[in-house]
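User: tokens in, sequence out, please.
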């Protein structure tokens, strides 16, 4: 079962989300929070797999909430926890629009992805499942705008000097380039003529080496370091 903490100041939205999630055989609602501060406290106590966060929390900065949920020092410091229990929650942000500046800041803070409030119920449920296993989702019409924002926010560094990039093997660079191009593991395996299990292993090694929490963070890293450049 994947546990989900719902965070929204709107009671009707919380009710609708609870009804949707409790109807899924593999999802359970561990709690509901109405403010960002409450979400941070409840995340530390309940240790949900996913925090479904309304991006319009008003009591504190939403980006700071994401950062505090995904980087809680107390998790790793608690003795006797299993690896899964010691892992911080993953955050999926519900957003009313596709503001690329907010998405960029959220991803850098550790968010696992963004889903529009107007998304179909099945799309939201699928996104929660994707984020829960450590992958990431982002609304398709935000992808190019996000890439452009990455270029504007961070001066592109030479690919040979990016922090963590020099630790990657040539094959791992090939795989990272493919990830940043939007290829799935199956597509990477077919195009690079390697086994899918090998691709999965490469992806795990890449994320560990560059300190990325999910594929979408690796995409941002690839563009920031100049390994990949958006097409004109």
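Assistant: Sequence out:
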């Amino acid at each position: 079962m994947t546990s989900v903490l719902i965070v929204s100041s709107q009671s009707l939205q919380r009710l609708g989300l609870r009804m949707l999630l409790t109807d899924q055989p593999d999802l359970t609602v561990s709690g509901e929070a109405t403010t960002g501060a409450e979400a941070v406290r409840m995340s530390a106590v309940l240790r949900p797999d996913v925090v479904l966060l309304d991006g319009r929390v008003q009591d504190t900065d939403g980006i700071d909430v994401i950062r505090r949920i995904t980087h809680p020092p107390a998790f790793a410091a608690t003795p006797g926890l299993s690896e899964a229990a010691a892992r911080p929650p993953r955050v999926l942000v519900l957003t009313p629009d596709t503001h690329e500046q907010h998405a960029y800041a959220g991803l850098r803070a550790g968010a696992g992805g963004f889903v529009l409030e107007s998304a179909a119920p099945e799309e939201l449920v699928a996104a929660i499942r994707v984020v829960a296993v450590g992958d990431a989702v982002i609304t398709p019409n935000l992808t190019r705008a996000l890439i452009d924002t990455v270029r504007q926010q961070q001066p592109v560094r030479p690919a040979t000097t990016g922090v963590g990039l020099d630790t990657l093997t040539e094959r791992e660079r090939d795989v990272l380039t493919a990830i940043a191009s939007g290829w799935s593991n199956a597509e990477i395996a077919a195009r690079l003529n390697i086994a899918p299990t090998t691709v999965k292993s490469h992806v795990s090694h890449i994320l560990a080496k560059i300190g990325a929490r999910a594929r979408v963070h690796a995409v941002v890293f690839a563009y920031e370091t100049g390994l990949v450049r958006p097409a004109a």
